[in-house]
Amino acid sequence: MTVHMKHRAAIWLLAALACTPLAAMTGRATHVSDGDTLWVRPAAGGRPIKLRLQGLDAPEICQAGGVAARDALSELVNEQDLQVEQLGRDSWGRTLARVSVAHHDIGSRLVQDGHAWNDLFHNDPGPYASEEMNARRARRGLHATLGAIRPRDFRQHHGPCESAAPVSSR
């Protein structure tokens, strides 16, 4: 096996492990921080767990569209029984998860409605590529006007929200 093939096999294995649920639980949202981060109290009891929705990237809260994205996520999960597939942890220590309500993927809905971008990973198109394409075609949410900036690009140019000047919503 060549080095290139070993490298590709390692990437595939890591990607497969990242998508394999570590644990499933049900619970209720106690707080929504932004368009891709929420806190869920397990139905079995215990403290709320901070979750980062896997496969999408919503605008920063101080970025144009950030408040709308947070409000959209809040509306989708408010007073709902949530099914949570915990998938791992991100570099900030948040639990990466897929969250569903009545077996409907919340991430898919946020991207479809234009409140978040499909999260690309190297050559992988991401889990919500078709939802983003549909939102762009329909000019929904972030795609209603030209110039929406992906959160990672926003942070590179403006820094984190604490140091960035608020950007008015469109």
Q: What shape does the CA trace take? A: globular
- Distance between the ends: 52 Å
Which segments are poorly predicted (pLDDT under 50) over 5 or more consecutive residues? 1-19, 166-170
Strand elements, count: 8
Spatial order of strands in the largest sheet? 1-2-3-6-5
Quick description:
This protein is of the alpha+beta class and 170 residues long. Helix content is 32%, strand content 26%.
Description:
The protein has five helices and eight strands. It is of the alpha+beta class and 170 residues long. It has a single domain (26-158), classed as OB fold (Dihydrolipoamide Acetyltransferase, E2P), CATH 2.40.50. The strands form two sheets. A five-stranded mixed barrel has the order 1-2-3-6-5. A hairpin with a 6-residue loop joins β2 and β3. α3 packs parallel to α4. It is globular.
Task: Summarize this structure as a short list of keywords or feature phrases.
globular; 170 residues; OB fold (Dihydrolipoamide Acetyltransferase, E2P); 5 helices; alpha+beta; disordered C terminus; disordered N terminus
Write the SSE topology:
Layout lengths: L2 H17 L3 E12 L2 E6 L6 E5 L2 E2 L8 H12 L4 E8 L5 E7 L2 E2 H7 L4 E2 L10 H10 L12 H8 L12
Parallel strand pairs: 3-6
Antiparallel strand pairs: 1-2, 1-5, 2-3, 4-8, 5-6, 6-7
